[in-house]
Design a protein that fits this description.
Layout lengths: L8 H11 L4 H7 L7 H18 L2 H13 L8 H20 L2 H14 L3 H13 L5 H22 L2 H13 L3 H14 L5 H21 L7 H4 L10 H4 L38 H22 L3 H14 L6 H18 L9 H32 L3 H17 L6 H68 L3 H14 L4 H40 L13 H8 L9 H12 L1 E10 H12 L3 E3 L1 H6 L7 E10 H12 L6 E6 L2 E6 H4 L4 E6 L18 H11 L24 H15 L14 E5 L2 E6 L1 H18 L1 E28 L4 H9 L18 E3 L4 E3 L9 E3 L2 E3 L8 E2 L5 E2 L7 E3 L3 H9 L3 H7 L5 E8 L3 E19 L2 E5 L3 E20 L4 E22 L5 E14 L6 E7 L10 E7 L3 E14 L4 E17 L14 E22 H8 L3 H5 L2
Parallel strand pairs: 2-5
Antiparallel strand pairs: 1-3, 4-5, 6-8, 7-8, 9-16, 9-18, 9-19, 9-27, 10-13, 11-12, 14-15, 17-18, 20-21, 21-22, 22-25, 23-24, 26-27
Helix pairs in contact: 1-3, 1-4, 3-4, 3-5, 4-5, 5-14, 6-7, 6-8, 7-8, 9-10, 9-11, 10-11, 14-15, 15-16, 15-17, 17-18, 17-19, 18-19, 19-20, 20-21
Length: 1160
């Protein structure tokens, strides 16, 4: 059964209280929730409506009164309540007509919102907002209504599918009235439905229309009932069907309590109340109460004509439908109105006349009431209130129909025509209003559209201006990419914006320039970084093995080695067994008890396969006698199992799924795992390099002879030769077989299929072993391979130092004095007249013998042909006459006699003697070939000539030459390093002769010098010592042209015709090779240093020369002696320092803790 559009009185009461703004908790507290009499509930509704009128809530009050009037309950009202109802309705209508239209629209919007008529609520709210007479408070309230409407619609959208389903369910159940009601209310929500939802409602609406055409009206939704829900419509209970009549708790228009109290919900039901009275009688009572209310209002407002007409109508026609008190009141006020108007009246004696008068009076009253209703209807119509006008016309029609029996048919039809005409006017007015509203709506939409466009344009311009400012700011910040994005947004708003187009071109050009500039900068930076890399490469490393800075991250990226790995649970158990030690003493304890003891002591879960152990003769009671002081758990288990089982049928243990399993070996062997092992690093060959170059001149000449000569000769590379003889290197297959044999001989030998077992198998593929075996065997294989890798992971670095230290000292102090006597002799004085540059020392040669002819150091004009004219310039040579024959006359006339003595020379040569003797020292010879540190030379000339020379030199030199080649090689390998300089020389000449000429074809031979270290070493088992076999050599090759040998030859000449021969020659070079060579085997501690060999050369030279006797006289000896002291000391040391390089140690030194993190 579909809900009726009527409400119970209690629902109306709750609605009135809710519209007053009271919280629902207050309603629950103020309203008697127990069953009360209907009259008392109705009186509360009337009182509440009166209170709303006083508070100015006209729309809500009027809605309550109309709802009560339309309810069948109105027929059961008392006379006093009926009078009060009509009086309140009349008052409400009058106040409504005089009230502010804006305020009424606002109240209508709020009332429509409370009934979920969102469309009407929005329309009334927009009227308030668009009205020029609205104040700010009214506009704010209207906006609040719009916000609530929006929230309501958003809330309803999430439940609309459920509501549509309810419509469909009601329709399918045959409850067409409910289905129509729900469709109407969904339409009032004004939701934007999707195509599917709209199609569903359209189909159902069409079906309902067809049903109405065939069955009649299904009922209409009465807004006077629905709009009285005690909240604003924000709840969507009716959408989900959670309430029966739409009544709800709480109000969005009232003040909600911060923490609503929990109250017992009120059951408000829509009831189909059957009226207890005749409908016509109820209608007449309704009309009587309405007339009484209008009459009372007219009387109170002193509209006595209207009041007299209404009171007369009530007394005459409706006296049976009003209470005695109301009838008495009507009569009293009619009489008072007559007094006020001066109208006389009294009782009539004639019954027929009374009847006629009564009919006439009824007609008059009906006509007056009709005219009154029509006037009010026209008034309401003129004010645009078509609803009120239509109601009043209906009342006028009802009034005239009651008097149809006392009027002519033509008059009645006339009244009916007037009613029809009035209804037509109302319909026309409504149509005009609708047209006007549509036009107004169109104009409003046009205005809003224009305003929206203007706002959009203004907003666009504001955004463009703001974006332009943003672009300028970004340009100043050099954020051109972001600036270009902002420019793109400007052009999106206005594609033809000139500023945006210009800025786009500018910024794009700037970006291209900056990109090019960036490339140039990157190019410069790349060159700079490359230069830095070169500089870094020139920095000598301070460590033998250098790890990259990101080595830890590289290690973590590489991951684990692809080989067998136990599960985490198994690793934990195995680690506990390997690390836990305990003393044990078993004195014939049962095997089962021993196993239990081990499990309880270690906390390891143990699973014993007694069935398999029984097959090999081991039972739980097998005694165990064993005493050990401190052993690991795995060793203990091995010893215990060896005690209880037969060696031919052994028992064993394994860790599976974190559980220690004890069973027979036969059963344990059934659990096999296939794993892959990479062994390419183990089969990689480390060759021995035994072809180090030799620094041997004879060998070089011999190689030259083998290489051929002539035409430039032959030669060879200093690094010629091969590596280890390929015949000495085992094949790859042999190396793989050796590792397989090693594994099969040391890990479970009986279990391999190659050895007759059925547990394990091994296959090699591309340097990988594919092994199927038990986990225990896999652990043993991993251990074995790791030990092999540990041996391969050892390297040795050898640093050899050739240390050459030279210390030299030289000191020379000497005085050389030459004296020439008889410098005033006649011979010398006469000779100086001709050659003034002549000195006494010019009379002696370098050996001290007297000369026959002397000449000075000057050049003079000379007449060589005797014509008296000088024709050349040169020294003048004069003969030496000697004593007794050299007298003569000076230009001044002085006569000089013959000399008795010639000029006498007393000269020293101690400098020459000393330097000659000291040249035996190379360092002294080098110093003597240079100028002295101090040299003083002087000459004195008077009657004697004195020449003196003083020299003093001291030199001290010290040089250290270190040659330190380094070499790193694998443990046990032979390797070498050679730092050589190859030079070619002419070692031989091959003559080539022709018929008239000849030449030599040189044989060019290369020879190398430098340093070579040829070493083979092995680290001791404890990695503390290194045993090395060292072959090292150092050589220097020099060429001295004086050592060259010149070979001559001749061609042509001889024969019958004769002729001269052609002689030709060429040099053969003889290089000088200085070398040091050492071969030895030594044992050295790791990172220790050993002196392999060396040489020390000391040379001391002390030379002193001088004049006998005089050189021994103190003080005077310094003038007649020379002294040279020279000392040379050369030391050559050959040192060697080995360093053992273990990969794990080096990695731990560079990155402490990394191996632990890697789990290795």
């Amino acid at each position: 059964m579909s809900p009726t559009p009527y409400r119970s009185v209690r629902s109306l009461l709750l609605a009135s209280v809710a519209f007053a703004g009271l919280p629902s908790a207050s309603v629950l507290a103020s309203v008697e929730l127990e069953r009360v009499t209907q009259r008392e509930d109705t009186q509360e509704v009337l009182d509440r409506a009166n209170q709303l009128l006083i508070e100015g809530q006209l729309v809500r009050a009027r809605a309550m009164l109309l709802a009560l009037q339309d309810s069948p309950i109105s027929a059961t009202l008392s006379d006093q309540q009926s009078d009060q109802l009509w009086a309140l309705l009349a008052k409400a209508n009058t106040m409504f007509q005089r009230a502010d239209r804006v305020d009424m629209s606002l109240q209508k919007a709020q009332l429509a919102l409370s009934t979920d008529n969102i469309v009407e609520a929005k329309r009334q709210a927009n009227i308030v907002i668009e009205s020029s007479r609205s104040d700010s408070d009214q506009i704010d309230a209207a906006n609040a209504v719009l916000d609530l409407c929006e929230a309501r619609q958003n809330d309803a959208m999430g439940k609309i599918d459920g509501a549509i389903n309810r419509v469909r369910e009601a329709f399918n159940a045959g409850d067409y009235a409910q289905s129509k009601l729900l469709i109407t209310r969904i339409g009032q929500l004004g939701l934007e439905l999707n195509e599917t939802q709209q199609d569903t409602l359209d189909v159902l609406r069409g079906k309902l229309t067809s049903i109405e055409k065939s069955q009649g009206n299904l009922g209409n939704y009465n807004p006077a009932m629905g709009m009285l829900a005690p909240e604003s419509g924000m709840s969507s209970d009716w959408l989900t069907g959670s309430t029966q009549d739409g009544a709800r708790t709480g109000s969005y228009l009232g003040n909600q309590p911060e923490e609503p109290t929990q109250a017992e919900p009120i059951d408000i039901e829509l009831v189909e109340e059957e009226p207890q009275v005749d409908l016509l009688d109820a209608a007449r009572r309704f009309e009587a109460q309405s007339l009484l209310g209008q009459a009372n209002l007219a009387f109170e407002e002193r509209r006595f004509n209207e009041a007299l007409t209404l009171y007369t109508n009530i007394v005459t026609n409706f006296n049976a439908y009003v209470s005695a008190n109301d009838l008495e009141l009507a009569r009293e006020r009619r009489a008072e109105a007559q007094i006020q108007l001066g109208v006389q009246g009294g009782p009539e004696d004639d019954i027929l006349g009374d009847t006629v008068r009564d009919d006439s009076l009824l007609l008059q009253r009906s006509q007056a009431a009709f005219e009154n209703y029509m006037d009010q209807s026209r008034q309401a119509l003129s004010e645009g209130d078509t609803d009120t006008a239509r109601t009043l016309v209906a009342q006028a029609d009802l009034t005239i129909k009651r008097a149809r029996d006392v009027m002519a048919e033509s008059a009645f039809e006339n009244y009916q025509d007037r009613v029809a005409e009035m209804i037509a006017q109302i319909n026309s007015t409504e149509e005009q209003q609708r047209i006007a509203e549509r036009e107004a709506e169109r104009e409003r939409l046009a205005e809003e559209t224009a305003q929206f466009a203007e706002n959009r344009r203004r907003e666009r311009d504001e955004k463009i201006i703001a974006n332009l400012e943003r672009v300028h700011a970004l340009q100043q910040e050099l954020k051109y990419e972001e600036a270009l994005e902002v420019v793109e947004s400007i052009l999106f708003l206005d594609p033809s914006n000139p500023a945006g187009l210009l800025l786009k071109d500018i910024i794009q050009d700037t970006l291209i320039y900056r990109e090019n500039l960036g490339y140039q900068r990157d190019k410069g930076l790349s060159y700079a970084r490359q230069s830095l890399d070169n500089q870094e490469a020139m920095v000598a490393t301070d460590s033998i093995i250098g790890y990259p800075d990101d080595w830890p991250s590289i290690s973590f990226r590489r991951g684990d080695i692809l080989e067998y790995a136990e599960s985490e649970a198994n690793r934990a158990v195995i680690a506990k067994m390997d690390n836990t030690k305990m003393p044990v003493e078993f004195n014939d304890n049962a095997f089962e008890d021993v196993v239990g003891f081990i499990g309880s002591t270690t906390g390891i879960d143990i699973d014993v396969d007694w069935e398999s152990l029984a097959d090999i003769g081991v039972d739980p009671d097998t005694p165990v006698a064993l005493k050990l002081n401190s052993v690991t758990i795995n060793v203990l288990l091995d010893r215990v199992l060896a005690k209880v089982s037969d060696p031919t049928l052994p028992a064993g243990w394994a860790v599976q799924d974190g559980i220690l399993t004890i069973a027979s070996e036969e059963v344990l062997r059934l659990n096999t795992v296939l794993e892959t092992y990479d062994i390419r690093d183990l089969i990689f060959v480390v060759p021995d390099f035994d072809n180090a170059p030799e620094f041997d001149l004879a060998n070089a000449i011999q190689q030259s002879g083998r290489g051929g000569g002539g035409g430039g000769g032959g030669g060879s590379s200093p690094f010629s030769g091969g590596t280890q003889d390929p015949q000495d290197i085992t094949s790859r297959e042999d190396r793989v077989d050796a590792i397989i044999t090693l594994i099969q001989d040391n890990v479970d030998p009986e279990g391999w299929r190659e050895n007759g077992g059925d547990t394990s198998s091994i296959t090699e593929l591309n340097g990988n072993f594919i092994i199927t075996s038990t986990p225990k065997n896999h652990r043993a294989i991993i251990g074995l391979l790791n030990k092999l890798r540990q041996q391969r992971a050892v390297q040795i670095n050898v640093e050899t130092r050739f240390l050459s230290v030279d210390q030299n000292f030289f000191e020379q102090i000497g005085f050389d004095l030459d004296v020439y006597f008889n410098a005033d002799s006649t011979e010398y004085q006469l000779a100086r007249v001709i050659d003034p540059s002549l000195l006494p020392s010019d009379y002696f040669d370098s050996s001290g013998a007297l000369l026959d002819n002397v000449s000075g150091g000057g050049n003079f004009p000379i007449d060589t042909d005797g014509d008296g004219v000088a024709d050349t310039i040169g020294p003048i040579t004069q003969p030496v006459l000697g004593p007794g024959f050299n007298g003569g006359i000076l230009p001044d006339g002085t006569i000089l006699g013959d000399d008795s003595w010639s000029i006498i020379r007393a000269a020293q040569n101690s400098f020459g003697l000393t330097e000659f003797l000291a040249n035996s020292s190379s360092f002294a010879g080098d110093i003597l070939n240079l100028n002295p540190a101090l040299g003083v030379t002087g000459r004195f000339l008077d009657d004697i000539q004195v020449d003196f020379l003083v020299e003093a030199t001291q030199a001290d030199s010290r040089s250290v030459i270190l040659t330190a080649p380094r070499l790193t090689f694998t443990n046990g390998q032979r390797a070498f390093i050679a730092v050589t300089n190859q030079t070619s020389f002419i070692s031989d000449l091959t003559p080539v002769a022709g018929s008239g000429a000849g030449a030599f074809d040189p044989v060019v031979t290369p020879i190398s010098d430098g340093v070579v270290i040829d070493v083979q070493g092995v680290a001791s088992a404890d990695r503390r010592y290194v045993t090395l076999t060292i072959r090292t050599a150092q050589s220097t090759v020099t060429f001295d042209p004086e050592n060259n040998v010149t070979v001559s030859g001749a061609a042509g000449g001889g024969g019958t015709a004769g002729g001269d021969s052609s002689v030709f020659s060429a040099p053969i070079q003889r290089p000088e090779v200085i070398g040091t060579q050492l071969s030895t085997t030594v044992t050295i501690p790791d990172q220790g240093t050993i002196l392999l060999g060396g040489q020390r050369f000391i040379e001391e030279v002390e030379v002193e020369s001088g004049v006998p006797v005089l050189s021994k006289i103190p003080i005077l000896s310094r003038f007649f002696s020379n002294r040279i002291d020279a000392k040379s000391e050369k030391t050559l040391l050959i040192l060697l320092k080995p360093t053992i390089l273990i990969q794990n140690e080096e990695e731990e030194l560079n990155f402490p803790g990394l191996l632990d993190q890697l789990g290795r």
